[in-house]
């Protein structure tokens, strides 16, 4: 990178910070900070939902998969997400919006203590926070790895730079700052991604174009949709995992739906995000599929291929824009995760641990949310420095195995608890399915050393915890139904259409319990 590239990068960081400062004026209470007060336009919510769904791991870990296996990187990653979000547009998005509009909560998990009980809410909250600290740590490590390729800064320096700037704008501006910066980041990535696509296609034009290039001996098997460990069973497992994860299991995605003005707008937001997931990853992946024809990766997993290609093919200025594109995805995901975690911690955990927190006024609650945001970012940055340790192995292991393997047990009680067909599944079903799913992940991947056995494939290592949780959640609900009038009333509020019949009234005690952790009157 030369002076022009650095100017582009510094200007980007400046604009992101300015957006955070401007958004500060729109944040008056915790509702504004965590759910934009329910005033976010559906199109901004949809773009934000999409942008907060992936990070620089796309340009490192998944770039390595694309370099090694080709088209399967899209078929077994982006396509399942697109399908899952499209399904969730009707099944989950409107229900998540009603959590805010009808139950008046500011955190996705606030409704769980009335839907199940406080222990269930706490179990899901604590385990989800710990998982996201590791997940976001992997994202910081990914962008720092790319930054080191272009600038030579160390991993720790890269983490401090990106994490510090993200902390500024998302802490002072809340969800509004997240969404608006994600809109700017989307525009930047649009320009950078199209530039790389055009240049890469131009480079292989003398080889007969894209279709013939994919048949090149250097790209042997790259045109196959399923390759390596990413086969049909992995696709099916990943589809189910992403169905839960991207429809609210990843709490920051739930916030985007909660932030819209109505359930119908949340549905439109989800369809927009799904459409982007179908199309935009193709633009980013095509140059990655062609990368073996253009560069030779230095790392065995090919995770540095896209960075090398960017450095060698792009002119200065445009190189800086593409590097900014790397930052945009990571900062979008990490800032949105930080906001979601702060919501869960301050709204769901602290009031249980400290009675005084239940009486916080608007100013104190907002300050607590900002302090928690900074604390989460600091912890995740500390984890990022250890992401290549023997415990985590490497970035892609954290993202695929840890997040995919643990997301199901944490998300299933939260997501399925929204739906009428699962109203009989109560606290016993929720806690048992959660605990057994987490234990299954541990035994499969570590205690029984299945990860070193060739007869246990990656898809089973990832899918079994989710399958175990799902089966137990459903079966226990049938064998030991725990539906009550209060729980049924809450489910009816979430499931009744905006223009449908009136939902069953929530009994007074349930309403009181449902707002006891919302002292600010959100």
From TrEMBL:
GO-annotated biological processes: sodium ion transport
Record's bilayer topology term: Multi-pass membrane protein
Pfam short name (any one): SSF
Disordered: region residues: 499-522
Chain ranges passing through the membrane: 6-22, 74-93, 123-143, 155-176, 183-201, 221-241, 270-290, 367-387, 399-419, 431-448, 460-479
Main location (coarse class): membrane
CDD domains: SLC5sbd_u1
Location(s) in or outside the cell: Cell membrane
Family the entry assigns: Belongs to the sodium:solute symporter (SSF) (TC 2.A.21) family.
Protein name: Sodium-coupled permease
């Amino acid at each position: 990178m030369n002076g022009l590239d650095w100017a582009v990068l510094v200007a980007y960081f400046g604009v992101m910070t300015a957006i955070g400062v401007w958004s500060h004026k729109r944040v008056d209470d915790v509702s504004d900070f965590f759910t934009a007060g329910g005033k976010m336009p559906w199109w901004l919510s949809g773009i934000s939902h999409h942008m907060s769904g992936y990070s620089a791991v796309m340009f490192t870990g998944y770039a390595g998969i694309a370099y090694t296996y080709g088209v399967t990187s899209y078929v077994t990653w982006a396509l399942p997400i697109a399908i899952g979000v499209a399904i969730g547009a009707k099944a989950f998005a409107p229900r998540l919006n009603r959590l805010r509009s009808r139950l008046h909560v500011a955190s996705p998990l606030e409704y769980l203590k009335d839907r199940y009980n406080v222990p269930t809410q706490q179990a899901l909250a604590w385990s989800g926070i710990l998982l996201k600290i590791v997940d976001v740590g992997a994202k910081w490590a990914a962008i720092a790895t790319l930054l080191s390729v272009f600038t030579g800064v160390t991993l720790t320096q890269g983490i401090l730079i990106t994490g510090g700037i993200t902390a500024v704008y998302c802490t002072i501006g809340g969800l509004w700052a997240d969404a608006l910066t994600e809109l700017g980041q989307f525009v930047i990535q649009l320009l950078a991604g199209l530039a790389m696509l055009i240049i890469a296609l131009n480079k292989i034009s003398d080889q007969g174009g894209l279709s013939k290039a994919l048949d090149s001996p250097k790209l042997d098997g790259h045109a196959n949709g399923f390759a390596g460990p990413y086969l049909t069973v992995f696709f099916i497992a990943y589809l189910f995992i992403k169905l839960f994860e991207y429809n609210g299991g990843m709490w920051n995605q739930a916030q985007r739906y909660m932030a819209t003005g109505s359930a119908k707008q949340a549905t439109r937001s989800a369809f927009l995000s799904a459409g982007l997931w179908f199309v935009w990853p193709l633009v980013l992946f095509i140059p990655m599929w062609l990368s073996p024809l253009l560069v030779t990766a230095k790392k065995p997993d090919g995770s540095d291929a896209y960075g090398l290609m960017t450095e060698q093919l792009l002119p200065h200025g445009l190189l800086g824009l593409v590097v900014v594109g790397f930052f945009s995805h990571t900062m979008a995901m990490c800032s949105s995760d930080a906001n979601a975690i702060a919501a869960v911690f301050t709204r769901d955990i602290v009031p249980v641990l400290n009675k005084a927190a239940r009486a916080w006024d608007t100013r104190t609650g907002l300050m607590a949310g900002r302090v928690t945001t900074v604390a989460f970012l600091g912890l995740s940055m500390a984890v990022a420095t250890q992401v290549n340790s023997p415990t985590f192995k490497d970035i892609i292991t954290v993202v695929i195995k840890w997040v995919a393997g643990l997301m199901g047990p944490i998300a299933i009680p939260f997501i399925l608890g929204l739906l009428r067909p699962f109203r009989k599944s109560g606290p016993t079903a929720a806690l048992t399915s959660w605990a057994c799913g987490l234990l299954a992940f541990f035994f499969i991947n570590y205690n029984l050393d299945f990860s070193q056995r060739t007869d246990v494939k990656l898809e089973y290592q990832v899918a079994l915890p989710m399958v175990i949780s799902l089966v137990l959640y459903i079966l226990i609900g049938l064998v030991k139904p725990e539906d009550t009038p209060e729980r049924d009333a809450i489910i009816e509020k979430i499931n009744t259409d905006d223009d449908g019949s009136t939902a069953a009234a929530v009994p007074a005690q349930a309403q009181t319990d449902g707002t006891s952790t919302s002292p600010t009157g959100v």
